[in-house]
Write a structure and sequence with these properties.
The chain is built from 22 helices and ten strands. The protein is α+β, with helices and mostly antiparallel strands. It folds into three domains: about 190 residues, no CATH class; about 80 residues; about 190 residues, no CATH class. An eight-stranded mixed beta sheet has the order 7-4-8-3-2-9-1-10, sandwiched between helices. Strands 5-6 form a two-stranded antiparallel sheet. The longest helix has about 40 residues.
Length: about 625
């Protein structure tokens, strides 16, 4: 048997030891490849396609590929490190048989290349199988109006194979070069060195609660622009607190429970908690890394999805079906008004859509105010006409009363509240303090404006600085969205786009543009999350041999199958979900802070994102638990 055959047989005949590393590497290849299939799709790279990606988006796709690839390097290195640590005893036996350090490095290099080659081929094959599903997801995320047809992704295959073969070659060289030659006695003992009792500081445990408590409090109580200012200190507090949570507080709590006989001696708790302090201490850095990486994944995807939902919902809530604006201070625009409005009316007639219409003058006045000297001001009648059209409540103003109006529940809320304490100084009328604020669903094309009584308009006419025509078409709610999109598309081809705002057409364009970023974030988030789950998998399986020996000894003392199953379930659940639950809490607080920043309720979006990730982790948990428990039972029987 040649040395190459020995390396190959070592891999194929010891599947349990190598399968975790192989599957994790193959999954990374598959994710990179499926993303490349999408990035290189001919439809999305065609300049002639209206739904194609623009140049900035293509740059973003390339950057995302680099990020995924760089993270793959880090992940494969971590997997390799965990993989080699679990083989210390094997290396010791090989050295006893006369294997030289050079041969040891050659063995590791060849084994890694065998695994890397088949992982690359397997990842590409799985990517091809799931390619159509990925493109269907992309169509919905990007709101594409044409299907992404399946194609032979030659460029994606070549890029993936070259990138990952090169990755495995470089990592194999690196690992084999830095492979440490531990003393033979340490290799033979493996991880069975005598360890002292893990220690935990009471003061650091209290500090953990303070750090996390203060961080959560600042994140939850901050609103508006304040969220931006507290973001950095909150992140620092939570990261430090999370590290101490796993290295100090968790160990302290376990030792506290072990000192309670009523709890520790109850049923099988002693088997569960006897070495849990060692496991928590040994796994603390992994748990910390998993919690932080998972939090980043939750927060990134939740932020992108939440922002998209918020903006698109406000498109619908604050705008009529279609609006037209033309400056009355520009002679060319004034001359074009009649033709533009006529063309738009013909488009609505073409699709047999009836509308209600309002024509009004939007005026800006030079008024003394700390916010802005040029303010948009509308009369009570003008505002009520628009409110009637959109089915909103009307306002009733007394003499010389004014109110501030702004986007409903929007991020302008804090600014508007400040304006209630700022009087407006008019030349003829004097200073008037706004009596109230109105968060309204229709803002007349401006984020903040003022509503005044009709009779006040004539008195301030000389303070007018500019005015524009504002013409609105409002269709019935029963008109389907595809028709409204086509109307907006036709109008965009007939009238300069800066003059019109077609709500459905603009919303679709925004979703397509923002969807590119969302799709990239979704992929990167999935990579982070699945990699964090794989980290837990490796840590759990690194203790498999110890668990086999422990439960084999205990089984001889009368441990039943029911008790074994109960202990294993609790042990795997604690070790598997401890960092994930922490990450879910971190993610909830982070996304809640996002809601406060925009003053927009994102609870449904937060719940959806966190529930989706939790469901993936639960499925992953059941798979891992089944195979782990199976191997323990086989070792006992």
């Amino acid at each position: 048997m040649t040395f190459r055959q020995f390396a190959f047989n070592n891999v194929t005949r010891n599947k349990r030891l190598y399968i975790a590393y192989f599957l994790s590497s193959m999954f990374m290849v598959m994710v990179f490849f499926t993303f490349a299939i999408f990035a290189y799709h001919p439809m999305l790279n065609s300049p002639d396609m209206l739904d194609g990606l623009n140049e900035q988006a293509r740059v973003g796709m390339n950057v995302a590929q680099v990020i995924i690839y760089l993270f793959s390097i880090f992940f494969v290195l971590y997997s390799m490190s965990s993989f080699l640590k679990s083989r210390k005893k094997e290396f010791g036996l090989l050295i006893m048989q006369g294997m030289s350090p050079r041969q040891m490095r050659s063995l590791v290099f060849m084994e890694n290349m065998i695994i890397g080659f088949f992982a690359t081929i397997g990842g590409v094959a799985l990517g091809l199988i799931f390619a159509k599903a990925i493109m269907l997801i992309a169509e919905n995320v990007l709101v594409l109006r044409e299907s992404l047809v399946f194609y032979l992704p030659t460029q994606a295959i070549v890029t993936t194979v070259i990138a990952f073969i090169l990755l495995f070659v470089l990592i194999s060289f690196f690992v084999s070069f830095v492979l440490r030659k531990d003393p033979l006695v340490d290799l033979i003992k493996g991880d069975k060195k005598t360890r002292g009792e893990p220690k935990a500081s009471f003061l650091l445990s209290i500090l953990t609660l303070l750090l996390l408590g203060v961080g959560y409090y600042l994140a939850i109580t901050a609103h508006g622009s304040t969220v931006i200012f507290v973001m950095v200190p909150v992140i620092i507090l939570v990261i430090i607190g999370t590290y101490f949570l796993f290295t100090q507080l968790s160990v302290f709590l376990i030792k506290f429970l072990k000192k309670r006989p009523n709890f520790y001696w109850k049923e099988t708790n002693m088997l569960l908690f006897s070495d849990l302090t060692y496991r928590m201490k040994d796994n603390a850095r992994t748990f910390f890394m998993v919690a932080i990486i998972s939090t980043v994944a939750f927060s990134a995807i939740g932020t992108l999805y939440g922002v998209q939902t918020m903006i698109t919902s406000q498109f619908y809530s604050v705008n009529p079906t279609l609006s037209y604006t033309a400056s009355l201070d520009d002679e060319q625009e004034v001359e074009a008004i009649s033709g533009d409005i006529g063309a738009i009316n013909e488009v609505f007639q073409k699709y047999d859509v009836e509308t209600e219409n309002i024509e009004m003058i939007r005026s800006f006045y030079e008024v003394e105010s700390t916010m802005n000297n040029h303010l948009m001001i509308v009369t009570q009648t003008e505002f009520n006409d628009m409110a009637h059209l959109l089915g909103q409540e009307k306002v009733e103003l007394g003499e010389e009363e004014i109110v501030v109006a702004a986007l409903a529940d929007g991020y302008m809320g804090t600014m508007v509240e400040e304006q209630l304490e700022v009087p407006l100084s008019f030349t003829e009328v004097g200073a008037i303090l706004p009596k109230q604020e109105i968060f309204y669903n229709e803002v007349l094309g401006n984020f903040v404006y003022y509503i005044i009584p009709d009779e006040l308009r004539d008195q301030i006419a000389h303070q007018k600085t500019s005015e524009s025509l504002y013409y609105v078409w409002q269709a019935d709610d029963l008109v389907d969205k595809d028709t409204l999109y086509q109307i907006g598309d036709d109008v965009d081809n007939l009238v300069p786009s800066y003059k019109t705002f077609a709500t459905e057409y603009t919303t679709v364009l925004f979703k397509q543009s923002f969807g590119q970023l969302l799709f990239i974030g979704l992929f990167i988030g999935i990579v982070f999350f699945v990699c964090s789950g794989s980290f837990l998998y490796f840590r759990l399986y690194s203790d498999l041999d110890d668990d086999k020996e422990k439960f084999k000894s205990i089984a001889k003392m009368g441990l039943t199958d029911k008790e074994l199953k109960k202990v294993l379930n609790k042990q795997i659940t604690l070790l598997f979900f401890a960092p994930i639950i922490v990450a879910l809490i971190h993610g909830f607080v982070a996304l809640n802070a996002l809601s406060n920043a925009f003053q927009y309720n994102l609870f449904a979006e937060i719940a959806l994102i966190l529930a989706a990730f939790a469901l993936i982790q639960i499925v992953y948990y059941f798979i891992v638990r089944y195979f782990y428990s199976k191997q323990i039972r086989e070792a006992i029987s």
